Amino acid sequence: MLSQYIPAQCAMCKAVVESGDAKMAEGLNTGIIYLMAFPYILVGLGAYFLYRNWKKNKI
Fold first, then answer.
1. Measured between alpha carbons, how far is 2 from 26 in angstroms, rounded to an integer?
2. Which of 18, 19, 43, 59 has its CA 20 to 30 A from that of 10?
3. What is the pTM of this model?
4. For every one of its 59 residues, what pLDDT tens digit does the chain have, with 9 covering 90 and above?
């Protein structure tokens, strides 16, 4: 229900997708995936190194 009220894209992204250029839309989707993935990777690596350091200091 909440998604009905939230705009999905900025004006430029919406214009690219609505233009019907499939290659451009595919590139946009790939860019969104990259932007979404990197914060999760960084947080995961940080948690791994903190856990490894905590485990080493505990022994």
1. 26
2. 43
3. 0.55
4. 445 555 555 667 677 677 777 777 787 778 888 888 999 999 999 999 999 999 888 86
